[in-house]
Design a protein that fits this description.
The chain has seven helices and five strands. The chain is an alpha/beta fold and 183 residues long. The chain has one domain: Flavodoxin domain (Rossmann fold, 3-Layer(aba) Sandwich). A five-stranded parallel β-sheet has the order 2-1-3-4-5, sandwiched between helices. The protein is globular. It binds flavin mononucleotide. Flavin mononucleotide (FMN) binds next to helix 1 and strand 4.
Length: 183
């Protein structure tokens, strides 16, 4: 039983990481195992559109960090996936990661896991970022638990966004409820 948080931002300790971690923190407090990974400093090559993954059931692009991180997604029970908003959408680095998950789409290898979408923007466009993440999660047939949107521009500013943090805690509590054993 584990919750995996991913931040797609190139700022390792930026706003997206902070908001994703705020969700994870709630789970940790309840004794649930969590893992966090930042895509900052990771090499994620783009999808080649070669369609070879239809036969291989895995992305044929080699020698980067995509495979190791995707193995973690396959291992998790709940995915908390977050992106900074770049031009009203997810950032390119995370989009590369998402595009390569096409290799798992053909046989719905990610289906059934639970997921939360997280987006941070300075001002506008966070809703569309969430929509893109929802498109990814719904295509793969994750069970969608909801979204968290935060506001912040400079690194760390999202910690001033009381509404965003509250939402992160609420979603964290929802995960705890779902993963806790019931009578
Ligand atoms: C290339 C780029 C594009 C951006 N586009 C938007 C945007 O469309 N709307 C917005 O509100 N903020 C935009 N921002 C601001 C970031 O979303 C904001 O700084 C966010 O907190 C970054 O999150 P991070 O610290 O996790 O990287 C943009 C920033 C960059 C670098």
């Amino acid at each position: 039983m584990s919750v995996l948080g991913i931040s797609g931002s190139m700022r390792k300790d930026g706003n997206t990481s902070l908001l994703v971690k705020a969700v994870l923190e709630r789970c940790e407090r309840a004794g649930i195992k969590t893992e966090f990974i930042s895509l900052a400093g990771k090499e994620i090559k783009p999808c080649l559109g070669c369609e070879k993954c239809k036969e291989k059931d895995w992305c044929v692009v080699k020698n980067d960090d995509w495979g190791e991180i995707m193995e973690m997604v396959l291992d998790c029970e709940v995915l908390v996936i977050g992106s900074p908003t770049y031009y009203f959408d997810v950032c390119g680095h995370l989009k590369n990661f998402i595009d390569r998950s096409y290799s798992l789409y053909h046989r719905r290898k990610l289906a059934g896991r639970k997921a939360v979408a997280v987006a941070v923007c300075a001002n506008k466009g966070g809703a569309r970022t969430i929509e893109t993440l929802e498109g990814f999660l719904n295509s793969h047939e994750f069970s969608y638990l909801g979204w968290v949107r935060g506001k912040g521009y400079l690194e760390g500013e999202v910690t001033q966004d009381a509404r965003g943090l509250k939402r992160a805690q609420e979603i964290g509590d929802k995960i705890v409820q779902l993963l806790s054993p019931h009578d």
